[in-house]
Amino acid sequence: MAELQSDSLRMIETMPGNVALFSEQGKLAASEGWKKEIRIEDYLHINEFKLSWDEGMKRAFGIPSSRFDEKIFFKLQDGRDEGLRLRMTAWRKRTVIVMIEGFDFNREVLTELDQFKTLQASKAHYEEMGEMAGGLAHEINNPLTVVLLKSLQMKKLLEKESAEINRAQMLDSAEKIITQTERIAKIVRSLMNFSRDASSDPMVDCQVSNLIDESIALCSEKIRISTAEVICEDISPADRCYGRPVQLMQVLVNLVNNACDALTGRVEPKIYIGIRHEDRFLDIMIRDNGPGVPPEIEQKIFKPFFTTKDAGKGSGLGLSISHGIIARHGGKLFLDRTVGNSCFVVRLPYGNDQYPSD
Amino acid sequence: MEMINTQVIDYSDYDIAQEVEKLKQALQRLNLKTDEKFFSRVEMGDTIEIYSYPENRQLYRNEEFSRFCSYSAEQMSDIAFPKLFWRSDEDQNALVKRAAQVALRENGVVSWGLPNHELVESLHPRKRTYEIKMGSIAPCFDAGSDQRVAWVSTVRVLLVFEWDQDI
User: Fold this and answer.
1) What Rg do the C-alpha atoms of chain B give, in angstroms?
2) What separation, in Å, do the N-terminal and C-terminal C-alpha atoms of chain B show?
3) Residue B119 DSSP code
4) DSSP code of B73?
5) In order of start, what are the domains of chain A with their CATH numbers?
6) Strand locations in B108-163 (E)
7) CA torsion angle A167 A171 A172 A174 (round to 10)
8) What is the pTM of this model?
9) Which residue among A7, A113, A150, A320 sits deepest, i.e. has the most Cβ atoms within 10 Å of its Cβ?
């Protein structure tokens, strides 16, 4: 690395503009003109545009003397997004020259980033809906079967003129019909709400208990298959937040589905959903009694494309997109290590005055 | 739309002694043991099943259920029960809780103590539906380590309905 750095320094001194050199491992070998407040390690992880860093490196090193343009995004230490246009060129084996064009805050690129993030969130939303649709069809057709069966049984009984009416049995059948019809109605209602394109919805005052109920209804198949018991703790109809309901449901569905996955094969699996009031914020906590998030991956779970699920079972975008959605609500999605095994907290400001303007 | 069957089923070919013997052999093959009293609780027409715990995968079932069930033995052993079958949340929660309670805490055979309910073949295109009459349940222990690893149960199954077209 020392030799590389010395060579690199000599080289970049002769080059105009902003230049940085990276080793094959993605380590910054040398730089000239980079702003001090940029955290390169953040940039390396946050790039979620078209070409990942790894892919860029592979292409740069795989094709001698190749050059290609890329846009990258990273965070400054004050949390603001920065966008750059880059020209990457394989300089020599094991080193990539990154020439930076338009280093300063680039509104055009950032607008593109926003559009990309919205598109990604929307894509993930529809992918999630597609995954859910098959399961939810069963969750509708199965109880519908019981409704039909019970109706037929009642009809048959009532058609027999001489038959004695067993009132208890009739009442039991009627209650089953009511319960299952209400269940179907709830799923359909939630699905209709969830299936809308909500990316440009206005922020509105939301009843948190409704968001939670509808999200649970959408996860009903996964919850049933995981055999998890969902326990809602201390959630009052008075608990309210301000946001885009469908996007907030998208986050809650993602967290509940993840909890179900984590509980597969666990003894007495449970998912606890609760509310906590923290200063100017309302926390929605989703906790499970699964194995918990291993400390070694804690820093990666909100990064795009990171997943612990088997190949084909998760895009690795769910938590990252949820994180982005909550950030755009002026809140924060985080893992609270002080509570239970896995406790994800959706922290939302109470009032609209605390939200970033659209 | 017709109900399939609410008639009394002919159980004349059901041999309780033979069913109990098959159950004992299955337990031995699976390296499991259970309360001896369970064997005397088997009644005419009972479906007898062993499920692993906590995965709730079927390890054994007698022939009785295949009289109606559309799933193959492989499907029954490879796919988790809640994916194959649907019952109402209330019935499901009560049953899962009761099975866990018995598998983890009971020492001998007990009654399921749950009301009759409907069970739907979730993956069947016509949603074949059964009425389930709950019988007895007992924990199963690993014959070597004595660990609680499964549960065995009897239920009476009656095919009552399926749609007249795929849904």
Assistant:
1) 16
2) 13
3) E
4) H
5) 2-105 (3.30.450.20), 114-354 (3.30.565.10)
6) 110-111, 117-121, 129-142, 148-161
7) 140
8) 0.68
9) A320
Determine the distance from the C-alpha atom of residue A350 to the mean position of all C-alpha atoms in its chain, rounded to a whole number: 21
Q: Could you tell me which residues are beta bridge partners of residue A263?
A: none
List the alpha helices (DSSP H) in B30-167.
73-78, 81-84, 89-105
Which is more confident, A124 or A225? A225
Chain B: residues touching A (Cβ < 8 Å): 1-3, 53-56, 80, 82-83, 86, 88-90, 92-93, 96-97, 100, 104, 118, 120, 122-123, 127, 129, 160-161, 163, 167
Mean pLDDT of chain A: 73
Identify residue A12 by its one-letter amino acid code.
Answer: I
Closest CA to A353 of A271, A300, A277, A280: A280
The reported pLDDT for the residue numbered B68 is: 80
Number of domains in chain B: 1
Of the candidates A144, A179, A224, the beta carbon closest to that of B82 is on: A224
Q: Is pLDDT at A95 greater than 60 in this prediction?
A: no
Cα–Cα distance for residue pair A135/A129, rounded to 1 Å: 10
3-class DSSP state of A203:
coil
What the block records as the tokens of A289 is 């009694």
Residue ranges of alpha helices (H) inside A198-312 are 208-218, 220-226, 245-262
Which site among B91, B96, B132 would you substitute to test the A interface, given the most A Cβ atoms closer than 10 Å to its Cβ?
B96
In a domain, B113, yes or no: yes
Domain enclosing residue B148, as ranges: 16-161
Task: Give the tokens for residue A120.
Answer: 């990604």
CA gap A47, A54 in Å, rounded: 10
Q: How far apart are CA A160 and CA A171, in angstroms?
A: 18
Give the residue from B52, B36, B127 showing the smallest Cα distance to B86: B127
- C-alpha closest to that of A225 among B159, B74, B134, B55: B55
A40 residue type, one letter: I
Which of B54, B122, B160 is closest, CB to CB, to A265?
B54
The answer to whether residues A100 and A89 touch, using CB atoms and an 8 Å cutoff, is no
Pairing of strands A229-233, A270-278: parallel
Per this entry, what is the length of chain A? Answer: 358
What tokens appear for A24 in the block? 């094959």
CB–CB contact A268 B100 (8 Å)? yes
Determine whether the interchain pair B122/A152 forms a contact, defined as Cβ–Cβ distance below 8 Å: no
Other Cβ atoms less than 10 A from the Cβ of A252: the count is: 24
Q: Is the confidence at residue A9, as pLDDT, over 70?
A: no
Is residue A110 classed exposed, middle or buried when 0-12, 13-18 and 19+ CB atoms within 10 A define those classes?
middle
Return d(Cα B30, Cα B152) in angstroms, integer: 12
Q: Which of B97, B104, B163 faces A145 most closely, judged by CB atoms?
A: B163
Instruction: Report yes or no on B99 lying in a domain.
Output: yes
Residue A185 CA to residue B36 CA, distance in Å, equals 47
Q: How many residues belong to chain B?
A: 167
| CATH code at position B134 | 3.30.450.20
